[in-house]
Structure prediction request, 197 residues.
Amino acid sequence: MTDDYFDDTMVNRQRLLWTIATRRQLERWEPFVASSVRAGRELDGVDVWAAEIEHHFALVAAHHLFQALDLPPATSVPVDPTLRGELIEGRHLHEHWPDNMPVFMVTPRPTQAPRRSGRDFADRNPDHGPYWWLGWNAKTGARLLPNVPAPELHQLLDAVEAEVLMKDPTLSDYVPRRAPSPWLHVNSEWWPKTDEA
Prediction:
């Protein structure tokens, strides 16, 4: 039954839907990161929680995107294995936060993560955890997770969207207008736009 349901049309639909959902969450989350960088400090109360919420749902949407990309037929879009692994692990670690926050939010880490996703993440990131929703550096831009620069995820989303729309141009009616980026990419560095920009 499942194989019959996910024909080419439905696979294209699911891939585009989760591409749009992931992009929308990045568009909601990145302005908080840019605002924090611009201010030179962590955000206050409501905004830091809003950043955490949007970050969490970006991970959920990205995980669903990978589920859609795993449906046959195979996608021709190359996916960096570290980006994929870390986004899936990050989603698991956020879903199972009662088990993982006591491991990753304490320095030094008192115990090993209880699940494989946490252990794999910890092996790759001995000095960083998944629970930081304002990650950024000038060379890579906003960072959803230690090895997931937002610009790299945007490139993946653009490639998946292009592939789907090449296969089924009628789905272009479902693609919303993109929000303006809060970033300037100048001299190979990412900086937040000023409020006037």
Remarks:
- The longest strand covers residues 141-145.
- The longest helix spans residues 8-39.
